[in-house]
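Review this:
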Amino acid sequence: MTAADLVVESNHINPIPASQRHGGPWQQFFLWFGGNVNVFNVVLGAILVIMGLAFWWAVIAIAAGTAIGALLIALHASQGPRLGVPQMIQSRAQFGFDGASFLFAAVLVLNLGFVAAQLVIEAQAMQLVWATVPIPAWIAILTPPALLIGVYGYRWVHRAAQVTAVVVGLTLAIMAGQAIARGPLPPVAAAMTAPHAGVFVAGIALLVIDMLSFGPFVSDYSRYIPEPVPAWRLVTAIWAGNVLSTVGSCTLGAYLAALLPKLGTVAAIGQVSGRGALLVMTFSLVNGCTFTAYTGGLQIIALGQMLPRWRAVRPSRPLRITAMAAVLLGGMVIALLGYRSFVTSLSNFLNLLLLIFIPWSAVNLADYFLVRRGHYDIASLFCRGGSYGRYAWRGLVAYAIGLALEIPFASQVYYAGPMVRRLGGADVSWVVGFAAAGLTYLALTRWAPLPAARTATVPERS
């Protein structure tokens, strides 16, 4: 640990100046490996088996969905070093200063949901270690450590991820060996009979959105990297870190669910590997809560910046810490209210996010790589009267079309689109939405070219 690690971060949504840039692709690899090698993904992998997939088909769905989703977020992350701003702030270029506000709100809901889910899983693990302490109490006890890491900010999130990558990675490898040593999987669970198409595609989609859920804030953690870093190296490092950790963790969860189908995933961990493993699994998500709450705080600040009397974008430690703490507190409250129906709620939550963020991803990537090719007026991202205006109609129309075309192909808990039955129950809404939104945006910008950017001035106060 260096002296710089003990400095409390003051930056929030403001652009990161060149003098404060540091790190490289290898740090991003460990950040994302450490961010995904955890018990959350173990539980997520088990959900695919609970949905009805045999173990090997679950592994194929995990690998396919993770590879696709990780590529998308790695491409989003490559924007960070070039622009130096949070991911959703950059989206103002596609949707307008006010037009992007619904995205800040959606990402904030995403962050609150994931903080709640992570706290519930941590609490379930600890309740199996010390049964005399109820789950609600563990949820409250496990929130402050995540806050402590977040107070120091970006550097401590990185350091915690590096420790997590090593400690939890080795623990999961040992757990996998212990699970295999218990004997072969039941014949039904190990069968290679072709699965139901709808369930298989739903499994892929679940992993795509698990990865893409990082998309709205992946640049929040790459914007500190110096700009000269080759984009392909950054994309490769982030993709590999996400794929290796997520596929490994989810595969273990799928194996445990197939091996011990009558037990919950966390209980199966305790039975196979004991209390020590449960303690490490709890530890594996502490930084995950910080990771999610950190970016949730940025969404609160970005929404606040839109208020008429609040235009501040200057670095501020109290502002960043207060916003992040509010997200942690909100997630804790949601966890306390909803921990009894956790697995069902998590699956439903991820399915809903699939509809919301796929069209955004398509528009954002099309704009950055194919339309503007990485050239933006950074000051205008913080100014209602800048180059991108209040509402950018091309991006909003493309997003709306992508979202509308997703609905007939969507298969949700309380709704199944008319095309789902014709496709054998397969939910391909994410494919349709991504293609429709991206192609529509490209067509609109070709038909009505974007106006030339003009330089704006970043306001500190109104």
